[in-house]
Amino acid sequence: MPLPAPTPTVPNNTQWGVSGGTGYQSGVSGINLVSGATSALGNNDTSGPWCIESQWMTVTYHRVPKGLSRNSLTEADFTLSGFSPAVNTVSGYLYATELACHVEARAYKTKSYDPYTTSAYHQPQKFQVNPLSADANGNSYGNVSAGTFGPGGTVTTSQVFFNRRLWDDTVDAVYDDTCNAYSHYGVVSGAQEVSYPASGFGLYIQPVPSQSFAQKLSLFLGWDWNGFDELSPITVPYLCKLVVRNNGFASDPGAYTAQSDTVADVITTLNIIGMNVVTGQWLYHSDRFNVNTNWEGCLAWYPVDTSLLCTHYSINRHDYS
């Protein structure tokens, strides 16, 4: 039985810490924590130099449809008067929903000569989820439980990972990694007429700026929505089509309700994305587009451009306790 239609409402924002999982895994982070981290060295001690490492991540997300089942048109649905087609064939049932995400991350190591009063210091990375009560169209889907995604929102780093110890020339080197990517991509393709009257066709492939279709739910329905040109965020050339794909997270079968969200979804998603910013897997950006070799704009496409990745980011620095 289909669920009732969502109720339009005014979105509001709530903030919750992400907890309910394991604590900081200090033994597997790849960082040797120095003993005596709180021992005093006196006021403004100048010994050093210091090795300082830090990382943070922000995820902006919205839940989108993942496939649609609807009735097919028949010739009998068309008429020469009134509405044509004569029946409502647009509506259908969702197979599932999932999150479409924009991720921004940074991991860096610096060499510092600043004075400190302790021999070392470290803290794990903690997160805060900021769910909206409604989607981009103002529809709500029930009460959003504490610490869960809801239909859209952000997850921010409430406490950055930070580790300071003495610099070791034999193992330390500075780095500064950043990643700005999306779980989805869009591309316009087709056989466009190159002259008129048509004397030939040329292959047309063009990326869609990754930020241009954020929160446009219709674009994630696959081929079913392609007949509705008014939904396109860009002008699509004649004989071409806009294709959108999403390697989403926290997939939920059937129609979405806020009650189906769990804290485990948030933790799992953060850890998967945290691994993806290292490798580029399932992450895209239109800046990575290459008409011959990488029309999806995949960050993991060979040869990998590591300047677009956070190769030193580690999920072992996450703390969900």
Brief account:
With 321 residues, the chain is mainly beta. It has one helix at residues 263-279, and strands spanning 7-8, 16-17, 40-45, 50-65, 68-69, 93-94, 96-112, 116-118, 121-123, 126-131, 139-140, 152-159, 161-166, 175-182, 184-193, 201-207, 240-246, 249-253.
Outline the structure in words.
The protein is mainly β and 321 residues long. The strands form 5 sheets. Strands 2, 4, 7, 9, 10, 12, 13, 14 and 18 form a 9-stranded antiparallel sheet that branches. It has a 3-stranded antiparallel sheet with strand order 16-15-17, with no helix packed on it. Strands 1-11 form a two-stranded antiparallel ribbon. The protein has one helix at 263-279; strands at residues 7-8, 16-17, 40-45, 50-65, 68-69, 93-94, 96-112, 116-118, 121-123, 126-131, 139-140, 152-159, 161-166, 175-182, 184-193, 201-207, 240-246, 249-253. The chain has one domain (13-74, 100-317). Helix content is 5%, strand content 35%. Strand 15 and strand 16 form a beta hairpin.
